[in-house]
Amino acid sequence: xxxxxxxxxKIFTVFFMVIVLIALIIFxxxxxxxxINVEGQEVVNERAMSLMKLISTHPLLVKEASMFDDxxxxxxxxxxxxxxxxxxxxxxxxxxxxxxxxxWSMCILNEKNASYDIPVNIYHKDTEKVTIGKLKVxxxx
Amino acid sequence: xxxxxxxxxxFLLVILVMFIFxxxxxxxxxxxxxxxxxxxxxxxxxxxxxxxxxxxxxxCRYVADAIYCSFISPSYICGTTGVTCxxxxxxxxxxxxxxxxxIVKKSxxxxxxxxxxxxxxxxxxxxxxxxxxxxxxSVMDERRKTAANEFVGSGLQILNLRLFxxxx
Lengths: 141, 168
Description:
The structure holds 2 protein chains of 2 kinds. By secondary structure, chain A is α+β, with helices and mostly antiparallel strands. In chain A, 48% of the residues lie in helices and 29% in strands. Chain A is built from 3 helices and 6 strands. In chain A, strands 1-2-5-6-3-4 form a 6-stranded mixed β-sheet. Chain A starts with a helix and ends with a strand. Chain B is of the alpha+beta class. Chain B folds into 2 domains: 1-31; 33-167, no CATH class. In chain B, 38% of the residues lie in helices and 23% in strands. Chain B has 4 helices and 6 strands. Chain B has helices at residues 2-25, 34-50, 63-72, 85-96, and strands at 108-116, 123-125, 128-129, 132-135, 145-154, 157-167. The model of chain B has no long low-confidence stretch (mean pLDDT 89). Chain A binds chain B through residues 5-6, 9, 13, 16-17, 20, 23-24, 27, 31, 34-35, 38, 41-42, 45, 49, 52-53, 56, 66-67, 97, 99, 116-121, 129-134, and chain B through 2-3, 6, 9-10, 13-14, 17, 20-21, 24-25, 28-29, 31, 33, 35-36, 39-40, 43-44, 46-48, 50-52, 62, 96, 101-105.
């Protein structure tokens, strides 16, 4: 009886250790996948941020840093997306919206994306007024 | 006795493994984009200051002008509006910081304050200093907040405009 109890105790010990080891392996696998996702997200974040800084300062679109010129935006909106590839790369979009709801967009596709937005100014060439708006830059995933 | 110590060992092992799990999990999902928050804060402050108030009077044409005017000449009536520079500045800023305008992010709260720099001490009357602030003052109680600042004015009469942003 005492011998049987000792064997059972050993079996339980080994069983629990195996369970713990399996849990550890599963956890490490999940953790690794999560880390890869986080790193992927960081890469997207970095690209979106660089693109946002580039777009908000590029003389093709702005009058001065973070102040978009509406006449330049009108022209840019009519340009094909391929025209921007040399400047800003591929698979991105930008949308500039004024506080009154007017919008200018470039390279918009109906695809999954990660985006950032920041407040910017919009210079209205006709009236010489500066309004506040928003720049949204996204990266297609 | 031997059996008990075996179970105690297993229990300690389980606790240790759980501790490792929690410790490792704490590193996942802690990607805070502080670069974005700083860029957002700086851009918001600059964009607000450079925006038109809707008035053509040079003393209060832009928000920065109107705030400065509210310290230099607190009783000055802006253009044909019948209101002071301070009121024009406050109304414009309150409008821009309103979540309904969708300029500011709903996940952030904002607080803007203008303070005279150095020994300059503008007052309405003796013992009654001029102050200007807008937004949610509870941002100042947050441990983690981002700040941006701009100076306006000239000579010895310089204003330090500071914007604080914290997650809400």
